[in-house]
DNA sequence: AGTAGCTCATAATTTTTCCCTATGACTGCG
DNA sequence: CGCAGTCATAGGGAAAAATTATGAGCTACT
């Protein structure tokens, strides 16, 4: 026979009110029920908690001391539970999110602003990483959600399409290519190209597209950062191939961009989550904002 | 529908073992029972605690976090309850005791030693005070037990006789009174007396006894401390009237004591406690040692 | 002094809760 | 493909706890 929360609440309330009857009323039970709860607790602990007399009850020293300790514990419990409920209602919570740097710089700020508007209590811990690492972080559970590239069917990951990021040709001011509405791969292959460094996933995508068309890539320049590539284009040194969503393009007013005639130069940006793992309410809210 | 300790234990155990079945076994319930406990808790909190799949369960982030908090709270609860049970078994606890100085110096040390032998975990907070204050401390609940004089029927206090402390005549070495087995009040009244100071309850008792016999008291010396009185007697300056139990007499080897022929020169030393208030287990143990 | 009103305790009954056994569904492995 | 392991579901039954009704002891008021 062990003690229960009900008995503990009965004790604290009885000590607080100094009366079994009042305590029972406050706890919405009948007085005999509370009397029995107290008595059962006493038997369970082997401690006399109240001195009974015909004109009421009076807590013993042990009763007072226990009520104090129990009250503190009940308060802690209440706090913990309230916190959990608050998170369930999306009124608070933390999401760890792994994001591609390009998305972090472009799509993400607006999404986070919308999330904040809808759920001000939710905090998002953003970690930017390259595509492979985004997937690894989500797999390891270090990030509850990830924004990365579609990488085909992985058993441990579930992908939700977010949007497609096409690569575009970035032309220097007044370039003759600007006359066309779109460019072909062979035309691009013949032009001096500004590409990202050979290790990047962006570069790999470009290489694949050209190879599929039977072309080889001979970059005129390689830049690690997109802003460098943009600067090179602006200086008229070549044509860059960059994601359409890159913020660097939007802040470079004189440059023109043109789509490229191939379905291969596209990246499907997806939301990643562990398969079979339910999302926290906070993550759920973030996912909704990202997808919606 | 609210949460219970049982459900909380189910959660912590399920997170700990990573399996509903193992958790159920450890908690000595069937697996369906545990499944239901978890589910009820989830509904009560509005939180998904586990991701279920056919090959087992896996706690969600919320489940892990809650299990951690709940475990801490359960530990605290366990500690508090264990402490209470320990006190109930007299393996620990504190008693506040108010004592007459004379008893504190004489009877008490032995009693405390016996208490320590029987119940090493019990601590006694001793406060020495004059008879009136001993009663007041017990009435106010500041001392759970008191050792004082029998003061007649008080509505708030309950008295248990401990022993009787007779006043005896303390004679200088070789005094002629030593020839008699006992002394009479008139004989004493005629001798030079060493008494305690007029404010003490001891002195009041002596005055009353002499007055009842139609005699008046003319002390040759008044001493505040018994050790002073003893020194005066040893110097042959008079005969003292002191409690037989006074430790000062035992450490004064050359002095003789004789009883006095009157029932009035006796103090009934009693154990005092609040009427209707049960004793803590520790106080119970102390009371047993004192009375036994 | 008698009585009304307050307190808590007790008793018997009913309601609710909870648990257990048996079984099913699903997955992963040999 | 079947076997072993996991959790979910369903139905019957036992245990726990609540309620109502009542009793008993004290206080205070008239």
UniProtKB/TrEMBL annotation, chains A, B:
Concerning InterPro entries, the annotation shows: HTH-type_LysR_regulators, LysR_HTH_N, LysR_subst-bd, WH-like_DNA-bd_sf, WH_DNA-bd_sf
Question: What PROSITE patterns would the database entry show?
Answer: HTH_LYSR
The UniProt record lists the HTH lysR-type domain at 1-60
* Gene3D superfamilies listed in its UniProt record: 3.40.190.290, Winged helix-like DNA-binding domain superfamily/Winged helix DNA-binding domain
**A Pfam family recorded for this sequence:** HTH_1
Entry GO terms, CC:
cytosol
**Molecular function per GO:** DNA binding; DNA-binding transcription factor activity
Q: Which UniProt keywords apply?
A: DNA-binding, Transcription, Transcription regulation
Q: Which family does it belong to?
A: Belongs to the LysR transcriptional regulatory family.
Protein name per UniProt: LysR family transcriptional regulator
Organism of origin is Teichococcus aestuarii
